[in-house]
Each structure stands twice: as C-alpha cells, then as structure tokens.
Amino acid sequence: MILAFLNQKGGVGKTTLAVHVAAALARNGARVLLIDADPQGSALDWAACRTADPLFPVIGFPKPKLHKEVPAHIPHYEYIIIDGPPRVNELARSAIMAADWVVIPVQPSPYDVWAAKDIVDLIREATTYRETLKSVFVINRRIVNTAIGRDVAEALAGYDIPVLATHIGQRVAFAESAANGSTVLEDDPGSLASKEILALAEELLGRKTKQEAAT
Ligand SMILES: Nc1ncnc2c1ncn2[C@@H]1O[C@H](COP(=O)(O)OP(=O)(O)OP(=O)(O)O)[C@@H](O)[C@H]1O
Ligand SMILES: [Mg+2]
C-alpha cells in the first residue's frame, strides 16, 4: 500500500502525519518505508535528529522520477509512505502517479479548503488514466472542543473526495515530539494525540480493506 501525503499548501501537516502514520503502521511490526519527496527534506531532518533506534527507514527522493523509483521498493515493504512537497509541480504529479492513496491534510479553515482545489484538480487529472487511485481529506489541527465550522464541512463536501471521520487536533505534542525525531506514539502513548494517530492509521487501513473486498 502506497500512501502519499500531499497538499500544495504549506504547513498543513503533510510531514507530521506522514511520519506519524508511518510510525503507527511500523508499531505492529509491518515493514514501512518513508520517502521524503519534498526538497525541503523535513522528514529526513526528523530522522537525522532522532536518537532512539529508527522505527523505519527514511530515504530522500525529491525527483519527478519518483513514480519510477517506488516500484523497486514494493517487494520489500508492506507500506510505503510518501511525504510530498508544498507545490503543484512535477514532483507532486509523480507522487500521485506512485500512490494507491493520496491523503490530503487540510486545516479546518475555509481558506485551506479553497486552496485544496489545486491538489483536487491534480488528482482528477490523474484519475483519468489511473482509475484505481483513491484520495481522502484528513482534517488536521482542529482546535480541540470546537465543531468543524459548517463552512468547512460544506466546502469540503463540494469536492468529490471523502473526508475521514478521524480528525487530528491542534496539539503541541506533535511539534514537541518532532523536535527530537520522535513521535507522540513514543513520547506519550496514552495521549489523545496518540489515540488520534492510531485511529487515523486504522481508518486508512479499513478503507484499504474495504476497497480490496470490493474488487
Ligand atoms: N495537529 C497538529 N497540532 C499542532 N501542531 C501541528 C499539527 N500538525 C502539524 N503541526 C505543526 O505545524 C507545522 C507544519 O507542519 P508540517 O511540517 O507537518 O506541515 P507540512 O504540510 O509538511 O509543511 P510543508 O508544506 O512546509 O512541507 C509544524 O511545526 C508542525 O509541528
Ligand atoms: Mg512537509
């Protein structure tokens, strides 16, 4: 299963969620590879400042040939997670071509929802020749104890892409854990942040299973 975290908008949580979903999947002993496809190299930086044993390998491949590189890794990993670049460009196109699933983090703000149009258009373009490509929105940085605004829910419904039921809250633990190459799953396994991440990974796997059953 190849999951690409993509959104051309910067700072929406692509790297945070890619690292955490990779960690959640690796926890159960699955072989996971994280590919940093962002020239900024944030996931590589995360791995470099880690002092604990690696949970999974992280490789950098911020090149438009990504979709040609990924198949060589498929036999060796159950899950390949791609952390995408904050641009709509050849790199993002290549990440979409490489992926089974595109996961689009969005913050619960109408601006973010409108800005998602670019990535939605790119996915739509790709599905014309990749019918099996799946995509989902995941709401990240939701302010705890607030409803997602009606505007946001309505605007997201306007796209032809489902929104995951799991939302990830605005929690400082995500930034804190990143600072030492760790994850909330390791730093505070019982925390709400951890529970949200595990729920997110489970929901993604559940969708995959459903998809497989249907085909
Ligand atoms: N749920 C969250 N709660 C609190 N902080 C968060 C959350 N998600 C992300 N952040 C913080 O927001 C900042 C941006 O997140 P991140 O780097 O994951 O976004 P990105 O989409 O990968 O950005 P870029 O487009 O630059 O690659 C980081 O400082 C991160 O720690
Ligand atoms: Mg990033």
What's this, in brief?
The chain contains 10 helices and 6 strands.
The named CATH superfamily:
P-loop containing nucleotide triphosphate hydrolases
State which percent range the strand residues make up.
Answer: 5-15%
Integer tally of domains: 1
The top-level CATH class is: Alpha Beta
Which key features would you list for this structure?
44% helix; globular; alpha/beta; 13% strand; 10 helices; six-stranded parallel β-sheet; 215 residues
Topology (SSEs and partners):
Blueprint: E1 2-5, H1 14-27, E2 32-36, H2 42-48, E3 58-60, H3 66-69, E4 79-83, H4 90-98, E5 101-106, H5 110-115, H6 117-127, E6 134-139, H7 150-157, H8 172-179, H9 184-187, H10 192-214
Parallel strand pairs: 1-4, 1-5, 2-3, 2-4, 5-6
Bound molecules: adenosine-5'-triphosphate and magnesium ion.
What does this entry look like structurally?
The structure is a single chain. It is built from 10 helices and 6 strands, in the order E-H-E-H-E-H-E-H-E-H-H-E-H-H-H-H. The chain has 215 residues and is of the alpha/beta class. It has one domain (2-214): P-loop containing nucleotide triphosphate hydrolases (Rossmann fold), CATH 3.40.50. The protein has a 6-stranded parallel β-sheet with strand order 3-2-4-1-5-6, sandwiched between helices. Helix 1 (14-27) crosses helix 10 (192-214). The chain starts with a strand and ends with a helix. The protein binds adenosine-5'-triphosphate (ATP) and magnesium ion (MG). Adenosine-5'-triphosphate binds next to helix 1 and helix 8. The site of adenosine-5'-triphosphate (ATP) has 19 residues, from helix 1 and helix 8.
